[in-house]
Design a protein that fits this description.
Layout lengths: L6 H14 L4 H8 L3 H9 L6 H10 L6 H6 L12 H21 L3 H14 L6
C-alpha cells in the first residue's frame, strides 16, 4: 500500500453497499465470518482490517477482491463479484432506476432525505 487509506471514504461505501443489499451490521458480520465489532469499526472508520478480513468482507458485500483498498485509495470499486453476475447487476440498476423515478416525482420529504444521504455519501458538489 503506497499511501494512506481513506478509511472515512471506505466507511461510506461499505455502509451504502450494505444498505443496498438490505443487510444489518450483524448480518454482514455473519456472512463475512467476522465479529459485529469488526464491521462497526470499519463503518466508523476506526480501524483498517487485515487482508484476510478485508477479503471476507468484500465477498460478503459481493464485491471483487481488492475493492475495499481501491475505494480507500480514491478509486471506485470494480463492482459486483462474478457471483452476482450480470443478471444481478441489471436487477440492481433497474431497482435504482425505479427509486430515482420515484424521487423525481416526489418533491417532498423522501427526496430531501435521499439528497441528504447522497450528499453525506459523496460530499457537497463542487465543495471541499
Amino acid at each position: 500500500m503506497a499511501g494512506e487509506v481513506d478509511r472515512e471514504r471506505v466507511a461510506k461505501y461499505v455502509v451504502a453497499r450494505r444498505g443496498s443489499l438490505g443487510l444489518t451490521q450483524e448480518q454482514l458480520a455473519e456472512r463475512a465470518g467476522v465479529t459485529v465489532k469488526t464491521i462497526y469499526n470499519l463503518e466508523a472508520g476506526d480501524r483498517w482490517p487485515q487482508a484476510r478480513t478485508r477479503s471476507s468482507i468484500e465477498n460478503a458485500l459481493q464485491w471483487r477482491p481488492g475493492d475495499l483498498l481501491r475505494v480507500g485509495e480514491g478509486m471506485e470499486p470494480l463492482g459486483l463479484s462474478l457471483k452476482g453476475g450480470p443478471d444481478e447487476a441489471l436487477r440492481e440498476l433497474s431497482e435504482l432506476n425505479a427509486y430515482f423515478a420515484d424521487l423525481r416525482a416526489n418533491p417532498g420529504e423522501k427526496r430531501r432525505m435521499a439528497l441528504a444521504f447522497l450528499r453525506a455519501l459523496y460530499g457537497e458538489p463542487g465543495g471541499r
